[in-house]
Each structure stands twice: as C-alpha cells, then as structure tokens.
Amino acid sequence: MKKYDLIIIGSGIAGMTSAIYAARYGLKTLVLTENVGGLLNDAYPVENFPGFKSISGFELMKKIKEQVEGLGIEIKSEEVSDILTGKNFIVVGKNRYECTAVILATGSKRKKLGVKGEKEFSGKGVHYCAICDAMLYKNKVVAVVGGSESAAQAALLLSEYAKKVYIIYRREKLRAEKIYLDKIKKNNKIEIISNTNIIEIRGKDKVESVIFDNPYKGSNEFKTDAVFIEVGSEPSTELAKKIGVNLNENNEIIVNEKMETNVRGIFAAGDVTNSVLKQAVVAAGSGAVAAFSAYKYIQSEE
Known about the structure:
Layout: E1 2-9, H1 13-24, E2 29-33, H2 57-70, E3 74-77, E4 82-84, E5 89-92, E6 96-104, E7 108-110, E8 126-127, H3 130-133, E9 141-145, H4 149-158, E10 164-168, H5 178-186, E11 190-193, E12 198-203, E13 207-216, E14 219-223, E15 226-229, E16 233-235, H6 238-242, E17 266-268, H7 280-301
Parallel strand pairs: 1-2, 1-6, 2-3, 6-17, 8-15, 9-10, 9-15, 10-11
Antiparallel strand pairs: 4-5, 5-6, 7-16, 12-13, 13-14
C-alpha cells in the first residue's frame, strides 16, 4: 500500500490549489478525483478570476492542471468510497492509500429540477451544461431554468447559437451579478419569464414542450427544443458524513479559519465548506490555507 503525506480528494480549483501549495511544502501528495476541474469546467465565461479578463472555466482548469502536473503531483482518476481512521488514514478507492492528512475538496454537484419528464429526457433535450451542449441548438428555441449567475451565463452562451432563449425563473428578478444582467438586457435574443415554474417536461423521442404553473401568453404549455437546468448546486458531502465530519444546516462541511474540520488530520476547502461566497477565487484561497494547515499538522505528527 502506497504511503503519502497528504491525499487531496477532489480536483476543482480548491483541490488543485491545495496540490500546488503541498508541492511547494515538499509534501508527497496524491490527488484522487472523478473529474478534473469539477463544475468550474462548465463555467463560461469566467470574468472575475484575477489575471484573466475572460476565460472559460475549462481552459482555466486546464492551465491549473498543467501547473500541478509540472510540480510532479500525482493525479489519479478514482472515486473514493471511504476513509478509515487510525494512527494514519487509509483512503479507499479502486486501491488503498495510506496518508497522514486528508483535504476534502469534493466541491458540489448540480441540483435536479425534480419534475416529470426530466429524467426521461436527460440528454434528449434536458441538459445541465450549456458549454457542453449549446452548439446542438443552433437556430433553435431553448429554455434556461434558474435565476442565478450560472443561469445568466448559460443564457448568454446559448444566445450565441439559438435563435431564442427564454429564462424561466420562479421569482420576480434574477439574482445574477449586475454585469450579466446588463448583458441580458441588451441581448434581444433573450427573454425572461418570471414568477413561473416548470412542472413537467414533455415530448416523444426528445423535448418538445414544457408545462408552466402559470400561463404564458394564454397557455400553460410552452414549446421549446431544449431545457437547460441551472437551479444551483449542493455540496458533495457523502464521504464527509461517513467519516463523522460535522456539517451545518446547509449540508456544508464546517471548517475554522485554518480549514480544519472536527476530525483531527482532516481538512476541507472550496465550495463543499461553509464559505460565505462560492467563487473560484475564494475556493483557491481556501485550498492554499488547507494545504498550509495540513503541512503544519504533518510536521507535528513526525
């Protein structure tokens, strides 16, 4: 069984920043991940990360991955099913690895809408990644569900391909940053349908329409070629729960200013934690802090 100083679980911007700092501290480090980049891969454009006026999330994570690999950090595509505690930690995936400290940077996963037809038409008009699938809907009519920054970004990207984009939001006003709201106002391809929920997705072999809870232009049925679901995300804390890490009422890992959890030797960083602002730059900073704290912990254990 291979022995490491530090194992980082997750490879979004928090996990990868942890890896960069761990390398600088000379820690023998392994990154275990199911998907390098996480949800940031789907972000387009990223316009609030220092050093880049505008860059896709995928391209940003590609650059960071290259930096991590250039530092000699080992990255393995492997789902972690458990962490066994003892004198050291045993991280269980396809293989078993021993380490002194662990950083949980498992990020978050997309929420589902939870309506009839969503599961049946997944990949057949129901999508969760505009940057992945926008090009499939050139000159088509599409709907984006949600009112957050990610919904606004998805609508703007889709407008580069689709002939018409409708944002369906359950509240009166979108919650996105002003810079995106201003772009939407100026875009004559995008229309907002507010105070409305989709309660069903319909079609035969693919999405053909959705059903609203409030009528739009006299009808509850609305024709669309696709539904892009952007209703937020939830922290991926299944592993944390299993090993007794404390969570708050929002199912986020509770950490202190040192990114320490209640379990000695287990640290956490990024969107999976109780951070106030879920942004790439915040996740990167927390990853740096987690690596420093892990380094100090490992030193104390030697």
